[in-house]
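Running co-folding for zinc ion.
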Amino acid sequence: MRVIEAPSPNHEPRAAGVPLDTVVVHYTGMPTAAQAIDRLRDPAAKVSAHYLIETGGRVLRLVPEGRRAWHAGVACWQGLSDINSRSIGIELVNRGHAWGYHPFPESQLESLRVLLADILARYGIPPARVLGHSDVAPERKTDPGELFPWRTLAAHGLAVWPDPVQPPAETPPVAWFQARLAAVGYCTPQSGRLDDATAAVLAAFQRRFRPKAVTAAPDTGTAARLMGLTASA
Ligand SMILES: [Zn+2]
């Protein structure tokens, strides 16, 4: 695919001995694409991503894949915290929740699928390691958000989606949710209580796998999706 070089100075060496095994999808969350691109290339902002995809589908490369870009921030997945060293970050131009969140156009998603398929094949990254920023930073981030079509991505083999499972008759205890969320990969307290961090993880899970009802509370529908996702794991 055609990629336009738009180098950002915001990168550094990846940590030694860490595999590149993750992709993190973001939205830019700024009023215009130009503002987002400027910020991701501004040395003072200290943020970047490897790729940015415009709404029309144009793909920009800001940071070489071999370098550590600064997109995930304080983050965690499967107990691992240096997500930037092990990931490729992809920004999708979208105004985001603060500036007028809107559906991702098909032209943009088509470019994303081509780019993801290429990255996953080249590094041998499994679909389960294609994550949203909110998955790895649930207390701070909501991108790429509930309009991002994870299910379609999964249908292309580029992400995971739960198998359909009959919901349990009653909502399981909080500890059950905490254990299942951790099994999926979410860094989740195992406190047995619906604390703030657990609520944030529940919201992140729902935003991704049940986007029509992001309640941050345990319920049978969320339990069914967790069962469908971890059944074969
Ligand atoms: Zn982000």
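Result summary
The CA atoms of residues 13 and 67 lie 5 Å apart.
Strands lie at 3-5, 11-13, 22-27, 51-53, 59-61, 67-69, 87-92, 130-132.
Job closed.
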